[in-house]
Amino acid sequence: MIANSFKKYSLLFLLFILFGLLAGCVQSSSDDGETTTEDGKTIINIGRMTSANPKFPEGDTYEDNAYTRLVEEKLDVEIRNAFEAEGEDYERQVALAISAGDLPDMMVVGSRDELQDLVDNDLVEDLTDVYEENASDHIREIYNTYDNKPLTDATFDDRLMAIPSTNGANAPQIVWVRSDWLKELNIELDADEDGVITLDELAEVASAFVENDPGDSGNPVGIPMAPYLNAGDYGGSAFTMNSIAAVFDGHPRKHLVEEDGSVTYGSTSEGTKEGLAVLHDWFEQGILDPQFGTRSFDDILTLLTNGQAGITTGPWHLPDWGLSTVREMDGEAEFAAYALGDENGMVNVFREDPTGSFVVIRKGYEHPELAIQMLNLFYGELGNEPDMETKYPEIAEYNQLGVDGTARPMNIEVYRSDSSIVNYQDVKSVIDGEMSVDDIISAGLRSNTTSVLEYLEDPENATTANWSTYHSRMLGWGLMNKLAEEDRFNWIEPAYVGTTPTMEQKGANLLKMEEEDFIKIITGAEPVDYFDTFVEKWHSQGGDDEVAEVEEELAKQE
Amino acid sequence: MVEGNTLSGKLGKFIIYFIVISLGLVCLLPLWNIVAISFSSGEAVAANLVGLKPINFSTRAYEMIMEDAQFWRSFAISVQRVVLALALNLILIVLMAYPLSKTKQKFKSRNVYMNIIIFAMLFNGGLIPTFIVIRSLNLLDTIWVLVLPGAVPIFSVILIMNFFVGVPKSLEEAAIIDGASPLQILIRVYIPVSLPALATVALFSIVGGWNDFMTGLIYMTQVSNYPIMTYIQSLTIDIAELVRSGANSDALQNIAEVSNRNLNAAKIVVSTIPLLVIYPFLQKYFVTGIVVGSVKE
What is the pTM of this model? Predict the structure, then answer.
């Protein structure tokens, strides 16, 4: 009997605890409609895009970190996070917020189409006047380096509806080649040291790598390529063929304006066909990865890491996050950066869309000027403060720790269009002893420069982080600087970078067909002339509508 | 059945063992590979060298997890959620299944309730309406959003109800003769004989709650409130996708640091430990035929 009543009481006890927890756990929601705190600070609720690895120092969070404290102090504002999420989850939270009719006071939207929707539904605040009143000269100058194109992109009916981010990644897709292997095999690549090599030179190096297996892997594969072959933008161009098609002035996955004013889709151009023909030849000769088409992105990194491959294509920052494992595995590994030139030795580069994402302010929010003030603070003042350590010690510490940019309550990129080259010249001046590290204005660049100096002191024993920084900054940026100085760039201007209704409906299928057909052509499952069949299919399965829509959009913009 | 000593019997046994062991290995080896990867150095994993034994033995991945305060915060949230959900689930399942296990004569509107719960099992309001309801109830970012929406798992209710239906009537009648109230009959008779079924639904609840990441993703607006699986999911980023969507170099660098296969493997290992620990404790309830012998026909 005692045991039984004990059981009964324990059940009651459990229920008791449950309800106790229930009462204790109900929190008041952070967004309860207040606009100022008790001590008079303005409240701003922000939708925050986060990173999986923010690298905050102990105790700091997205809601309370050096940047939010700085904003609180400087602008007398309390930042509250309406939501935090990363990547796709952020998009979902934004969609939920819109459908629940409860937008945060400030948030980032990823595309112009999304912004257009918000504007059409009258959900975002007009920023024209607050921008005119508040924007600092420095910010205006940054936008000016893009001929104010980002601001135009954020303008609807002459009203500025969002703060645009900038995208100045105007760079050639770089061919990274293991320079320690070149030395080992006594190959002299790029004898005139202009940074530009031809496809034939690259093919020779690749076949030497396949024959001699300098990585001692037992199974060298030549040049690996991702099965999707082409990237939509520069940042995604790792392991793709963009630069090879560019040699023939083909620009896959881009919309171009022809001389007669008509629009073409780059993947269907003659240049792309020639690029594919080259890759097909390489595949036949065995200097393109024989398992091309089945290798995933991770597989390709693996091939590079275990010494099966020593040539790859990618953006200038590939060493920072991709090639670093190669050096971890093999302390001797070094890469050299080249650009592929066409028959006249020119490097054809597609100019990126200068506008990335947009910061919007909720319609009816009382202090839209805060957005511009944050913009000034983060991208004007902090970017140009020579004495971070004394004026902003916390931010300086963040830069040291490499705290992710998402820590900033306003997380967009705003930098000059020529920043890579200007930055390279600063780093170079320091290395040449023409100026000191402390003279560099941007804190991020100062830490890059210190890394490069550390690497140069003792390249063999340098940390992988310094190795990466040296490769991406000195070799990657250096190549861009060299090409710019020698005037070797042939810039191709984009026709249109948005999304039309047909792209939305049929784009995915068309892209899938494109990727599959290109793989067939390269591996020889279909002859190179099958490309013409692909072009026909592309046009008949929605491509024609797509081009017509782009032409219409362009006519509207004029 | 295959007999012991003849040649064909031995062969049969061999084939049976062969199949069983192969199937066992097919299940075990991938797990073992994950464990080996988690104890290898990052570059060996990137070079695809790790098979069944760790290369360049390293506990760096585990050290990184140990240092990650959010990992343990999320771990605690998941434990809390599983405990709460388990208690609530079992209470509500039993309380709902018992009356529904009675015949229509005894419980007149039984079928109405049955239809309602089956309807609710097959159809739901969809993501956005559910989100709006949860938001209006001020449940966002509380532990309860992980517990309450799934407090009555219909499938488990039906399972237990059917189990109760199968319990011999004589047991209940004997209890009534002894003067037991319906609640006493439920607690003293039905629950003790239904332990195997209850252990099963308990396991459903634990595994389901522990592995669920979607709820956390949708209803938690702050990373600090994520349960463990949501947190791990948010850390495990396909860098290829990120690269294709064109992230900037610093962001890629930071992601490459946490989302490598080595670290991901360690996270998987750590997060499966609680389930591995719980299972043996529940196993003793998986004894069939507990009602056998309680009634003499």
Answer: 0.80
What chain A holds in terms of domains, given with CATH numbers, is 42-167+355-407 (3.40.190.10), 174-350+478-498 (3.40.190.10), 419-468 (no CATH)
pLDDT cut 90: percent of chain B above it = 37
pLDDT of residue A9: 59
Taking an 8 Å cut-off on Cβ atoms, the answer to whether B248 and A472 are in contact is: no
Helix axes of B7-38 and B261-283: crossing angle, nearest 10 degrees: 130
**Encoding tokens for residue B120?**
């609710």
Out of B132, B223, B261, the one facing A50 most closely (by C-beta) is B223
- For residue A311, give both structure tokens: 């040539």
Instruction: List the end-to-end C-alpha distance of chain A, in Å, as a whole number.
Output: 90
Residue numbers of chain A with a pLDDT score lower than 70: 1-34, 169, 558
**Residue A464, H or E segment:** helix A464-469
**Which SS3 state, helix, strand or coil, does residue A82 take?**
strand
Give the model's pLDDT for residue B294. Answer: 60
pLDDT reported for residue A2: 46
Helix (H) or strand (E) holding A135: none
**B143 → chain A, closest CA residue:** A25
- Coil, strand, or helix at residue A371? helix
What backbone torsions phi and psi does residue B281 show, to the nearest 5 degrees?
Answer: -70, -30
Q: Which residue out of B82, B244, B260 would a mutagenesis test of the A interface target, given it has the greatest number of A Cβ atoms within 10 Å?
A: B244
Q: Which residues contact B16 (CB under 8 A, 6 or more apart)?
A: B2
> Are A96 and B218 in contact (CB < 8 Å)?
yes
CB A345 within 8 A of CB A196: yes
For chain B, which residues make up each domain, given as ranges? 7-58, 69-283
Tell me the pLDDT of chain B averaged across its residues.
86
Nearby residues of A366 by Cβ (< 8 Å), 6 or more positions away: A35, A42
The residue that leads in pLDDT, A173 or B124, is: A173
pLDDT of residue B59 exceeding 80, the answer is yes
Q: What pLDDT, on a 0 to 100 scale, did the predictor assign at position A25?
A: 42
pLDDT tens digits along A463-486: 998 999 999 999 999 999 999 999
What's the gap in Å between the CA of A356 and the closest CA on chain B?
Answer: 10
What is the distance in angstroms between the Cα of B53 and the nearest Cα belonging to chain A? Answer: 18
Distance CA A224, CA A221 (A): 7
Q: How far apart are CA A179 and CA A338, in angstroms?
A: 11
The distance between the two most distant Cα atoms of chain A, rounded to a whole number of Å, is: 99
Domain spanning B69-283, CATH class: mainly alpha
Render pLDDT for B210-244 as a digit per residue (tens, 0 to 9).
999 999 988 998 888 999 999 888 877 766 666 66
pLDDT exceeds 80 at position B255 = no
Q: Provide, rounded to the nearest whole percent, the portion of chain B with pLDDT above 70.
A: 90
